[in-house]
């Protein structure tokens, strides 16, 4: 069966203590309650970087720029309704303090502690890459 590819971009914000920011999806919706990296769908005509900068502003109220986004890895995972292709960036420099504008909660965690938080299945292979990097 053919599946359409959904392009979603995500960001790992890393603080001075090498902790990473995760955000809890609201209950009830798809993957409700799971912890994810901030980000969202790339809109038609948008670059991944522009989409990420927009999403970080909308979701967290922080601003950053393309030069502060470093490619880390990507996720490629078949869900029932679509195939997710998700470039993942690392960002260490931004302005503002993240606040949960669209999520239930935010949490700064050490990469090794990510395994204690239920994440979407697409994200699981990313944890090892983060533990290696940080
Ligand atoms: N932002 C983000 N999305 C992720 C991650 N892992 C993962 O599987 N996803 C999936 C969840 C969603 O299906 C999709 C992101 O779409 P979205 O957040 O813009 O949209 P949504 O499903 O919450 O809501 P909707 O606008 O489709 O109603 O990517 C992740 O780490 N971060």
**What proportion strand?**
25-35%
Number of domains: 1
How many helical elements?
2
Oligomer: single chain
CATH architecture, by name, is: Alpha-Beta Complex
Write down the CATH class: Alpha Beta
The whole-number mean of residue pLDDT values reads 96
**Share of helix, binned:** 10-25%
Small-molecule binders here are:
8-OXO-2'-deoxyguanosine-5'-triphosphate
Q: What is the H level of CATH, i.e. the homologous superfamily? A: Nucleoside Triphosphate Pyrophosphohydrolase
The helix/strand order is EEEEHEEEH
How widely separated are the two ends? 39 Å
Shape: globular
Low-confidence segments: none
CATH topology: Nucleoside Triphosphate Pyrophosphohydrolase
Give the C-alpha Rg.
Answer: 14 Å
How would you write the strand order of the largest sheet? 4-1-6-5
Walk me through this protein's architecture.
It catalyses: 8-oxo-dGTP + H2O = 8-oxo-dGMP + diphosphate + H(+); 8-oxo-GTP + H2O = 8-oxo-GMP + diphosphate + H(+). Keywords: DNA damage, DNA repair, DNA replication, Hydrolase, Magnesium, Metal-binding, Mutator protein. InterPro entries: MutT-like, MutY_C, Nudix_hydrolase, NUDIX_hydrolase-like_dom_sf, NUDIX_hydrolase_CS, NUDIX_hydrolase_dom. Its cofactor is Mg(2+). This is 8-oxo-dGTP diphosphatase. This protein is α+β, with helices and mostly antiparallel strands and 134 residues long. It has a single domain (5-133), classed as Nucleoside Triphosphate Pyrophosphohydrolase. 17% of the residues lie in helices and 32% in strands. The protein contains two helices and seven strands; from the N terminus they run E-E-E-E-H-E-E-E-H. The chain has helices at 48-60, 124-133; strands at residues 5-13, 20-24, 35-36, 39-41, 69-78, 83-91, 105-109. The strands form two sheets. The chain has a four-stranded mixed beta sheet with strand order 4-1-6-5, sandwiched between helices. The longest helix has 13 residues, at 48-60. The structure holds 8-OXO-2'-deoxyguanosine-5'-triphosphate. 8-OXO-2'-deoxyguanosine-5'-triphosphate binds at residues 8, 10, 30-31, 36-37, 39-41, 84, 120, 122-123.
